[in-house]
Amino acid sequence: MTAFSAVDLRRMLSRLRDVMAGIGAVQERLDKVVALIAQDMRADVCSCYVMRAGEVLELFATFGLSQKAVHLTRLRVGEGLVGEIAAHARAVALADAWSHPQFVYRPETGEDFFRSLMGVPMLQAGRVVGVLVVQTREERPFNDWEVETLETVAMVIAELMAAAQVVKREELFETEGNALLPVRLTGVSLHAGVGIGLAVMHKSHVRIGRLVSDDPVAEQHRLHMALETLRQEVDALMDGAREDTVGFRDILEVYRMFADDRGWISRISEVIASGLTAEAAVQKVHDDTRVRMMQVLDPVLRERLQDLDDLANRLINILAGGTARIELPENAILVCRSIGPTELLAYDRRRLKGLVMEEGSPTMHAAVVAKALDIPVVAQVEGATTRIDAFGTIVVDANAGQVMLRPSEEVVDLYTAAIEARTKQKAAYAAVKNLAAVTKDGMQVSLSINAGFLLDMQGVIETNADGVGLYRTEMPFLTLSSLPDVNAQFALYRQVVAEARGKPVTFRTLDVGGDKIAASTASMPEDNPAMGWRSIRLTLDRPSLLRQQLRALIRATAGKELRVMFPMIAAVSELDAARRIFDMEIEQHLKAGGEAPAWIRIGTMLEVPSLLWQMEALVERVDFISVGTNDLMQFMFAADRGNTRLANRYDTLTPAVLRMLRYVADHCHKAGVQVSVCGEMAGRPLDALALLAIGYRHLSMSASGVGPVRAAIRSARLSDLEPFVKQSIATGQSSLREKLRAFALDHGIAVG
After folding, report:
1. Which residues pair with 451 in a beta bridge?
2. What CATH class does 183-205+325-425 carry?
3. Dihedral angle, C-alpha 87, 93, 94, 95, nearest 10 °
4. Is the CB of residue 570 less than 8 Å from the CB of residue 608?
């Protein structure tokens, strides 16, 4: 096996193609395939396990093991070495498999005489559809080239099996209930709203017709031609070729940069040289990258898998001669496992009334785009792609995180009325957007938006917000393997300032983990990334990252106000260290003849509880403090905010939380330091009223929250609200939420 070469691999792939494309029953062809692999790879055994319903792996074909075990031996996903490979979609290569703790002996297979084992997952459209295994009698190690060879073979077999329908897709899923009765599916709302329409199934995976190539040079040429077409398509979107895409330039800029990544293109070229077609090589490299990224603990980085899926699918589609634009019925609800931003933009937004996903999260790029287009989104809907009928009528209730299949006429009428009511409510918010957020008795509150992309900046004008209270500088760059240089950052920040049209923007420095930036590859995997080496801790340890970002910010705000906010500060000494770096960059900028910002404001996020006991020293060092309630709450309650089991266990309107927030506000007011709240709490009307009552006059939220919060503030009277909340804090033991809601209803306060 060690002498196996790229030429041998191309020859074997060609033979596999001929066998699978030949005549005879599928079983006969698979039997020939495993015998061929064993022969060419000089192994004593080759076995093919296929995924069946209920996550069970069935021995489907073997050369070297007992034929009696075929279709008899079954392993659950996670059981034995084969089950372990399927569970983690990761190759295993062992010189002595019997000594491994996961090894499971099945006497019917007759594998008593085989010591070494190498197995790889068979992936098709991102799913594990089986496991391919080779074994030898003697104990022998397997090298990386051998593993890579078997992975390439497994990828080809998986696609050929799918084309031959060895296992029909519907066999992998259990049927439930009466297919004619209404069904309610639950998920997570990523953007509120209601949509009614016909389900359209998003087909992101392009079937690869030709897997093996006889002319690598021609395939390399096809790849480079397709890459050029890909760049042209993205450039057309960036240049606003279609009016639907105005405002998405920053996401597409990152997408374009990844499409130019030399490492990615080089890996595809290497696989083409081994004997695969260009589209098969793209799929192979993508599957490998996907498996590696799935091992990353950080959820935000794993969300960037959607962008990788989008990129690979688009390139394969170009190679296959497909078209990006897809026709929709008049009212369409898009249903998918997941989707990338350019895939979503390929649909007609005027006909798209909702989006349902089996996966998805708030920070994925497609969700950001859907939010900007005001498309209701429900994600994490289990079994959506298999339980929803194509072109059947469905209702997406993204307010409640629900999807109704086969709804009755009464349900459709009910939600049609809800859509009309929401349209009227949005019109009402728009009608008062130019009015100040001031209570009935004259207390004015500043409302700003949180942003992370250029498209979010539209919210400043659309809602007439007072500015941007939090600009997450890391968001546009999370797809990249390294942070862009100073010039690229400068161009982005300058555009952000321009989009704000003279209103203040508070830039939060990088809030990322060590596994998101190539410069920090020395970091080790962490059990709890949220409390690990991230944010200011990372940038102080890698000061070049912070210096480059501050340099770009200083240049971008020349002659204007610069507001810089440092995140995840746990000790005043960290703030002092960050401030020294900032002062050094300002000094060097001026020495080089650069124009200074007209005003400089330095602040910090308050999201680590330890900072609460350093308030006296903290307020002497900052111009403003922004309370990040999202992280602060999870640290305060020791509750992971990403854990759905804990999502509703702790309430931000409990007396303990409000006492803590009042403590912060009191210290800031006494020192003359501006204090604001920029977490999700600020964007909920009831929570905003409580914050107003305990002394907060600056709130920053998503753009969608500005209208409802403005309406609540304008309909409240602080002289009534303040004593009620303070008394409830003093005497109450549980959440004030329902008491405050009743108070709002009694006093005619609009809380939605």
Report:
1. 471
2. alpha beta
3. 160
4. yes
Q: Which amino acid is at 277?
A: T
Q: 505 by DSSP, 3-state: which?
A: strand
- Measured CA to CA, the distance from residue 54 to residue 42 in angstroms comes to 34
Q: Which residue has the tokens 């798209």?
A: 352
Phi, psi of 710 (to 5 degrees): -60, -45
Beta carbons of 449 and 706 less than 8 angstroms apart: yes
d(CA 187, CA 493): 35
Residues 520 and 483 sit within 8 Å (Cβ to Cβ): no
The identity of residue 210, as a single letter, is: R
Residue 139 contacts residue 117 (beta carbons within 8 Å): no
Per-residue model confidence as pLDDT tens digits over 312-358: 878 888 887 765 556 788 899 999 888 877 778 778 888 999 999 99
177 pLDDT above the threshold of 60 = no
216-319 fold: Enzyme I; Chain A, domain 2 (1.10.274)
**For the chain, domain boundaries:** 6-169, 183-205+325-425, 216-319
Q: Which two tokens stand for residue 286?
A: 């993508």
- Name residue 66's amino acid: S
- Rounded Cα distance between 509 and 518, Å, is 17
This prediction has a pTM of: 0.60
Give pLDDT tens digits for 598-654: 999 999 999 999 999 999 999 999 999 999 998 898 888 887 765 656 656 778 999
